[in-house]
C-alpha cells in the first residue's frame, strides 16, 4: 500500500492523527508545559477565584474573576496548540540535489578509462540580494537545497525551517515562519496570565485581612494556596516576562533569535529591518503562508522520465545489442549522505562496457539498481519521494549528444567501491 508523506518522513518529527498534527521529537515536554499551566489554574479556580465570587459590590461581578481565569487559560492553551502542533515552516527536502549542483560540467569532468565523472565542485554558499543587502545562503547537505534567506536547519527536528527562530523545548517544536506569531502570543499571554493570577491571589489575601482584621501573616496562613500561587507566578514572570520583552525587541528590529545570537558578534547589517511599525506589521498582520508540506499526501512512487529524441537513437541501438539501455533506478538514498557522494551517482558507461557485460550483465550495485531485464521497462522510472523533474532534466541530458548516442546511463548510488571502479 502506498505510504503517505508523514509515514516516509525523514525528519525527526512525530505525527499524530494520521499526519494531521506534527510535533518535534521532544513533544513529550509538552506534557510538562501543560501541567505547568493547568495545575496552577485549577488551584487558582478552586482556592482563590471561587472565594472571590461574592467579594464585589454586585454579586455577579465576582464570577468574572473565575470566568476570565478559565477563558484566559483556554486561550493560552489554544495558542500553545497552534504553536506546537503545526508545520512551523519546514522546507521540503529534495530527493536529489538541485539542478545547478547536478549540472554536468563536461569541461571539468575527468575522463578515466573511457568513463567520465562529473565535476564534484559546486558552491556551498550563494549570495542573494535581500532589500539591497547581499545575504549569503548556505547549501544544506541533508535537505539537498540552498536554504532560502533566514532559513536554518534545526538539528533537533532535522529539517530546514523558514525564518527559523529557535527550537523551543517547552513547546516541543521549532519556532519558525508559520508559528512565530502564535509563539509570541503564547508567551505574552502566559505573562499576562501570570500577572492576573498573582494580582488576584494578592487581592484575596487583602480580602482575608480586611475580613478578619488580622495581619498579612494571618491572612497568608489562612490561604496557603494564594501564597504558593503568588510565588509560582513571581518566578514564572521572570521567565515568560523576560522572554516576552526579548521577543518584543526582536520583532521591533526584525531579527530572529538565531540571527540575534549568531550575527550579533559579527556586527552584520540587518537586511530585514524596515522600521519598527512595519516590522510589527509583518509579524502580526501578514497572512500566514500555507504549509509547503502535505503530510497526508501519498508518496509519489514512480516518475516517468521523458524520452529525448537523441536518446531514442541510443535505445534502438541498444535493442540491437540485446540490452536495455536504461535502468530502473531505485532511489533509496539516505539523504543525510554527503552530496559529494550523491553527485557521483551517475556514471556514464559507454556501450563497450555494456557489450562486455552482454545480456547477462547485471549492474554491480544490484541492491540499488533494478535490472531492466526482468521488468522489461522501456522508459526508466525513478523511484523517489518527491517528483524532481529538474533532476531528470539536469541529469545526464546535458551531455553532448554524441556521447549520448553511444552511451547508456546507469544511475547508481554511491558506494565507496564505485570510486575504485572508475
Ligand atoms: Zn536542511
Ligand atoms: Zn526543531
UniProtKB/TrEMBL annotation:
Catalytic reaction annotation: L-cysteinyl-[protein] + hexadecanoyl-CoA = S-hexadecanoyl-L-cysteinyl-[protein] + CoA
Annotated coiled-coil segments of the chain: none
GO MF term (any one): protein-cysteine S-palmitoyltransferase activity
Domain remarks in the Swiss-Prot or TrEMBL record: The DHHC domain is required for palmitoyltransferase activity.
Name of the protein described by the UniProt record: S-acyltransferase
Biased composition (Polar residues): 353-365
GO BP term, example: protein targeting to membrane
Family listed: Belongs to the DHHC palmitoyltransferase family.
Sequence segments annotated as region (Disordered): 308-329, 348-388
GO cellular component labels: endoplasmic reticulum; Golgi apparatus
InterPro entries the record matches: Palmitoyltrfase_DHHC (IPR001594), PFA4/ZDH16/20/ERF2-like (IPR039859)
Domain Palmitoyltransferase DHHC: 138-262
Superkingdom to which the source organism belongs: Eukaryota
Transmembrane segments: 30-49, 61-83, 182-205, 225-252
Underlying gene: LOC115750723
Any matching Pfam family: DHHC
Keywords, ordered alphabetically: Acyltransferase, Lipoprotein, Membrane, Palmitate, Transferase, Transmembrane, Transmembrane helix
Entry EC no(s): 2.3.1.225
Subcellular location, record wording: Endomembrane system
UniProt membrane topology term: Multi-pass membrane protein
Amino acid at each position: 500500500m502506498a505510504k503517505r508523506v508523514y509515514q516516509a518522513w525523514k525528519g525527526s518529527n512525530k505525527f499524530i492523527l494520521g499526519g494531521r498534527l506534527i510535533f518535534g521529537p521532544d513533544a513529550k515536554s509538552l506534557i510538562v508545559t501543560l501541567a505547568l499551566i493547568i495545575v496552577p489554574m485549577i488551584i487558582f479556580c478552586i482556592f482563590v477565584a471561587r472565594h472571590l465570587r461574592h467579594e464585589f459590590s454586585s454579586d455577579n461581578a465576582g464570577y468574572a474573576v473565575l470566568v476570565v481565569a478559565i477563558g484566559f487559560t483556554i486561550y493560552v492553551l489554544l495558542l500553545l496548540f497552534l504553536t506546537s502542533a503545526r508545520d512551523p515552516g519546514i522546507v521540503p527536502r529534495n530527493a536529489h540535489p538541485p539542478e545547478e549542483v547536478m549540472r554536468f560540467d563536461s569541461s571539468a569532468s575527468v575522463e578515466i578509462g573511457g568513463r567520465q565523472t562529473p565535476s564534484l565542485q559546486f558552491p556551498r554558499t550563494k549570495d542573494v540580494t535581500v532589500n539591497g543587502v547581499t545575504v549569503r545562503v548556505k547549501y544544506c547537505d541533508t535537505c539537498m537545497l540552498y536554504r532560502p534567506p533566514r532559513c536554518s536547519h534545526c538539528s533537533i527536528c532535522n529539517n530546514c525551517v523558514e525564518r527559523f527562530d529557535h527550537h523551543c523545548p517547552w513547546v516541543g517544536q521549532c519556532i519558525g515562519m508559520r508559528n512565530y506569531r502564535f509563539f509570541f502570543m503564547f508567551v505574552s499571554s502566559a505573562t499576562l496570565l501570570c500577572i492576573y493570577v498573582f494580582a488576584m491571589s494578592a487581592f484575596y489575601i487583602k480580602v482575608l485581612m480586611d475580613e478578619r482584621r488580622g495581619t498579612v501573616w494571618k491572612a497568608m496562613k489562612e490561604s496557603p494556596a494564594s501564597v504558593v500561587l503568588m510565588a509560582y507566578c513571581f518566578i514564572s514572570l521572570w521567565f515568560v516576562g523576560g522572554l516576552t520583552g526579548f521577543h518584543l525587541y526582536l520583532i521591533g528590529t526584525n531579527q530572529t533569535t538565531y540571527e540575534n545570537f549568531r550575527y550579533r558578534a559579527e556586527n552584520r547589517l540587518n537586511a530585514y529591518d524596515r522600521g519598527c511599525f512595519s516590522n510589527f506589521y509583518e509579524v502580526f498582520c501578514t497572512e500566514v503562508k500555507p504549509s509547503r508540506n502535505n503530510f497526508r499526501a501519498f508518496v509519489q512512487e514512480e516518475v516517468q522520465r521523458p524520452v529525448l529524441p537523441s536518446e531514442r537513437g541510443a535505445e534502438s541501438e541498444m535493442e540491437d545489442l540485446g540490452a536495455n539501455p536504461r535502468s530502473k533506478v531505485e532511489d533509496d538514498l539516505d539523504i543525510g549522505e554527503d552530496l559529494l557522494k550523491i553527485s557521483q551517482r551517475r556514471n556514464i558507461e559507454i556501450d563497450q562496457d555494456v557489450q562486455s557485460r552482454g545480456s547477462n550483465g547485471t549492474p554491480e550495485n544490484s541492491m540499488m539498481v533494478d535490472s531492466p531485464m526482468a521488468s522489461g521497462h522501456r522508459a526508466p522510472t525513478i523511484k523517489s519521494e518527491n517528483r524532481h523533474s529538474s533532476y531528470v532534466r539536469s541529469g545526464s541530458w546535458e551531455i553532448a549528444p554524441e556521447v549520448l548516442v553511444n552511451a547508456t546511463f546507469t544511475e547508481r548510488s554511491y558506494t565507496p567501491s564505485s570510486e575504485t571502479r572508475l
